[in-house]
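User: structure tokens for this one?
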Amino acid sequence: MPGFIKSPDDQTGISGGVASFVCQAVGEPKPRITWFKKGKKVSSQRFEVIEFDDGSGSVLRIQPLRTHRDEAIYECTATNSVGEINTSTKLTVLEGRTCPTNVPHMPCSLAVTPTNAFPQSQWKLKGFYVDVNLCCPYIRAVSHVVTQHIVHSY
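Assistant:
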């Protein structure tokens, strides 16, 4: 029976931005990962499924985000000849070209974490995935630094 070793986390994104979900499973035989939205296999030019090199998982990347169209529960299914398991995650998409109200504007104290899947294109700030070009000029200034955690106060 397959087993998840990495389940996707709930995310909040901004319309026009990017969301990436990671799902990874183990089992014998090796399970196949499939992504679903509202019970249907994901398929769109804005949805990209990136398989891990070793076949153990994949990343579902949605870009650009659309407020009403993409806000949904997404399901990751791991299937092999022994069985099938599912896990789900929620995507919330905020409207507008501004940061969420609880994301501070500059000057501010930031704890910035690049995501594992796309360290230079997606940043998480105070629990929100943000578009660095819209929300936080400081993130743009340090986005070339590939680290797991950057803390800076203005």
